[in-house]
Specification:
209 residues; alpha+beta; NADH Oxidase; four-stranded antiparallel beta sheet; 4 strands; 44% helix; globular; binds flavin mononucleotide
Amino acid sequence: MLTTTVSNLYTIMEERKSVRKYDPTFKMTQAELAEIITKATSAPSSSNLQPWRFLVIQDEAIKKELREIANNQEQIETSAAVIAVLGDAEMYKNVEKIYTQNVAEGHMGEEQKNMMITNSLRMYPSAPFEIRKNIATFDAGLISMQLMLLAKEKGLDTVTMGGFDKVKFAERFELPENQFPIVLIAIGKAAAPAYGSSRLPLGDIARFI
Ligand SMILES: Cc1cc2nc3c(=O)[nH]c(=O)nc-3n(C[C@H](O)[C@H](O)[C@H](O)COP(=O)(O)O)c2cc1C
């Protein structure tokens, strides 16, 4: 029998469902949103390069504009905030900073730090943009899931959206060349429950050998 160290994790996972109807009067403070994002950064990432970036949109006028480039999805406007999850294809530029911090916090010694920096700088900068984009997208998916579960744990709801014009988004928010949008996560107080969703049976998705 498997046990979990956080006994309510499974309940939170079960209860998280994509909510598309929000109470438009419910607002969140920047500090509340910052806390969720900060906690979510415990997610793992390739070489710990943490290639996720966020644009947190609460401004009503900007949300209206964003709705237009996100297939007119209502939750963009009615949720308390939209967290745009971005990827940084030049994540390797933080390698020195990250591994110096690892040493300062006592997670590793100088030798291991230098090896990680050397290896990362040998691999990442010369990898094709598409490869770096895939890595950043995968890692951003991991932190996105953490964000959604943390929100649920606070009694809030979310919906992830891939349905938006990524080119227009990058233009409107003047993303630098190395950054690209991945998903938008609306967060807020549900005004109506999610309509629910089914899952494929285990036999369709897993093979045990
Ligand atoms: C990458 C991704 C993109 C999605 N895009 C949208 C979207 O644009 N609009 C929407 O209403 N839901 C979107 N969803 C939500 C899915 O429809 C939803 O997760 C799925 O139906 C399972 O339902 P559940 O989240 O309630 O368990 C997206 C989900 C993911 C993971």
